Amino acid sequence: MTETSQLQSVLDRVDADFDASVQRLFALLRIKSISADAAFAEDCKAAAAHLAADIATLGFTTEVRPTGGHPAVVARGNGNTGDRPHALFYGHYDVQPVDPLNLWHRPPFEPAIADHADGRKIIVARGAQDDKGQLSTFIEACRAWKSVAGALPIDLTIVIEGEEEVGSKNFVAFLEQHKRDLAADYALVCDTGMWDRDTPAITTSLRGLVYEEVIIKAADRDLHSGIYGGGAQNPIRVLTRILGGLHDDNGHITIPGFYDGVKDVPPEVLEQWKKLNLTAESFLKPIGLSIPAGETDRLLIEQISSRPTCDINGIVGGYTGEGSKTVIPAHASAKVSFRLVDGQDPKKIRDAFRAYVTARLPKDCKAEFLDHSNAPAIALDWGMKPLAAAKRALTDEWGKEALLVGSGASIPIVADFKRILDVDTLLVGFGLDDDNIHSPNEKYDVKSFHKGIRSWVRILAALAAAPK
Amino acid sequence: MTETSQLQSVLDRVDADFDASVQRLFALLRIKSISADAAFAEDCKAAAAHLAADIATLGFTTEVRPTGGHPAVVARGNGNTGDRPHALFYGHYDVQPVDPLNLWHRPPFEPAIADHADGRKIIVARGAQDDKGQLSTFIEACRAWKSVAGALPIDLTIVIEGEEEVGSKNFVAFLEQHKRDLAADYALVCDTGMWDRDTPAITTSLRGLVYEEVIIKAADRDLHSGIYGGGAQNPIRVLTRILGGLHDDNGHITIPGFYDGVKDVPPEVLEQWKKLNLTAESFLKPIGLSIPAGETDRLLIEQISSRPTCDINGIVGGYTGEGSKTVIPAHASAKVSFRLVDGQDPKKIRDAFRAYVTARLPKDCKAEFLDHSNAPAIALDWGMKPLAAAKRALTDEWGKEALLVGSGASIPIVADFKRILDVDTLLVGFGLDDDNIHSPNEKYDVKSFHKGIRSWVRILAALAAAPK
């Protein structure tokens, strides 16, 4: 067979086997591998075992290896020769919690194909996209290659962890420990999105993430506002006053030094971005909004990709049940996260936030802080070899030029791959903005899953042909 | 017997019977009559039936009467003559919810006598003070009079409701419906506090209460902050920004018109108040604070009694579980209450608050409001006849001049008594600031209970001797 006819045979195999691919994804989606909740630890183990057993059938030597937390799967291609380019594919089998459960239209761990309101076929379940659906596009592509050609076209190691949704802290130690076993020429990650439904994308920059929890404490007990109201500090009042000042009237973040090191996007890139015509109509209207909420002197595309942001992700204090209670609580807390861009030092940002809060505390109040994430932004090397190969392959599959884009999201592991394994990462994914990841009714378009598998089939072929 | 020796006999009877009085209070405290939670509706009925049966033994014709909510107890003295002063005693058998349960040192509905850290004997249970303990001081005083003298010294009607802690909305309708049965010369209420542990007090003004809930809505679903952060409105950010601006740097409330109609305390009263020497040391140190949090140009005693206040009693939005979730929620909400003083119109304050919030909403956000309370402040008539009699009786019992004080709390029913029954109310109570009412570990000093009963014995005698 010529290379071209072989590639076509593998693609045909993907199409012929697609119904079975969906059933295999469903089997994975039925496992309740919620990493944040200790009650699901056994489910996480089950997901790792399930993946190890499945990947073993594709010609890999697979192991479930312990970490400090949920286990990781490591799979090494039996046909690895050492002469070919060697890729390390990374994914995660863990998923986000499902609350609020009452907003789901069907049970989150009973996957099904459903009809989207606009007629698209979608796969609905927790993890349908993030990351079980996405990592399965790669595994199914390997299956098709193995089935048609008897082997994979490149050397391959697969690693799938179970703690991405809780910060990968144990996995970073695992990487250090197993770095020899995980050596490769570059990493492949399928945990990002398309530009839009028809336009594939490779993500070349990721925002960093500083995620802090702040707890304000005042009196040593809950108080009755009739007796103490007016005289005693109210930690919710203190918290709202401090958090309410984090943005000025123009949407700029007011923490001193926050923008230190932040660079403007080069004018030529900005010109390209303007042509993409990302509008409030296209981006915000589908979620019921109409006005960009970020810095008023920036384009919407800058607000969501190249500019650092601050969001309050959670807040709680006092009485939150039905009706009323005239309480002044002893404490109140909030979860505050910052998306960082290239040039910002996460430790400095964390310290600046803590100093900002502390400077605004009344003398009678204390603040405590918890560090949930502290990862820098990542700018990938646009000149990395596999990138051009992947761009061609994606363009071939989708019939539309693949875009190189900056993502607003954070995938901290990419920095760890560079630091620990000294590899660059190619970020290709098939998520859409309306996939409701981390929310009720998470979905993955059937088209994303199908053409995602086909895309990886082509990328693997292109990587085989490209220099290491 | 002379009147004096009869009074002494009744007081002796209180002392001799005190252990039994405590046991009767315990029986009432064991009933879980939480009015806010429908799961305890049967317990509320049981508390009403229990009180009706007990009060019947004191020479009253008692009935449990239905209301639109939990029932009320109405008891009419069998010895009422029509020639003597006729008092209407009011109390409530319902109690606040007990959450957070894990902060209680013992089960909230298993009352016990305990030792306070400073050596005081205390009765610990939900309702130990508010209002089961307080109303029991009056009922036990009646029991002692009945036991020694065979009859009460004045004409008396007792009414005990079950929805004070949820706003008494049904009880106000009940008052309208039964106003003939409840006719009296004045009302007595035991739901207020002492000045301090040794100094009795009669409350002559009460702050009003506007209690609002505000819900801010932005996108039509929860969003991932990696994708939308920076571009989409975050309702927690909007809420904290609005609530964080409710006070200025000097602790003044910034809502336009908020202080309209508020009068300064007369200079001579302020002079008296200054002599009381209410300090941060005495008032705030016991709860772990040191600096008055109210208007910086006002005395602490003004901040907590004669000045209107604003407190955020609860706030919630986004992810509030353990760890982190990078969500931008669809909505966030807060419970905000205002303590009002004489001269402020609660409806105007409510409307001004709503206008304040609405004016600060980004165009993409909506605000919804719930009205939980809307009651004016009350200034009682310092010249009302029974007041002087009660002041003498309290001074006799405690050996220290009873003070006439303004309370920071709200007892909206007092305004309804005036409006519907055309009676003034005498507010006498034996609560202390550290009773933890509405909080875990509610308590009532044994001394408050014991001398409270003795105080009412003396007040009943003094009212019998005073003009109607």
Automatic annotation (TrEMBL), chains A, B:
Give an example GO molecular function. peptidase activity
A Pfam family cross-referenced in the UniProt record is Peptidase_M20
EC numbers, comma separated: 3.5.1.-
Q: Which InterPro entries match?
A: Cyt/Met_Dipeptidase, Peptidase_M20, Peptidase_M20_dimer
Q: Which organism is it from?
A: Rhodopseudomonas rhenobacensis
Taking the record's annotation, the residue ranges forming a coiled coil are: none
Name assigned to this protein = Amidohydrolase
Q: Which residues form the signal peptide?
A: none
Q: Per its UniProt entry, what is the enzyme's top EC class, as one word?
A: hydrolase
Name the SUPFAM superfamilies on file.
Zn-dependent exopeptidases
Q: Would the keyword Transcription regulation be found if you checked this record's keyword annotation? A: no
